[in-house]
Design a protein that fits this description.
This is Apolipoprotein acyltransferase. Keywords: Membrane, Transmembrane, Transmembrane helix. It is rod-shaped and about 45 Å long. The two termini are 16 Å apart. Helix 1 runs antiparallel to helix 2. It has two helices and no strands. The chain is 89% helix and 0% strand. With 54 residues, the protein is an all-alpha fold.
């Protein structure tokens, strides 16, 4: 659940950053995909850490 939530947040944040920098649609998609992957990895590690300690 944490992974999905952070993936959505990352994609939205990436889209917003590219929009602020006045990128075209492909720029927005690239930023969204890159941040989605990055935030998903962070969410995966958070899930593993939480699962280990509980």
């Amino acid at each position: 659940m944490i992974v999905i939530l952070l993936a959505i947040i990352g994609a939205a944040l990436g889209w917003r950053i590219a929009s602020k920098r006045e990128g075209n649609r492909l720029d927005k998609l690239q930023y969204a995909a890159a941040l989605m992957l990055g935030f998903s990895v962070i969410g995966l590690f958070l899930t593993l850490i939480i699962d280990t300690f509980i």
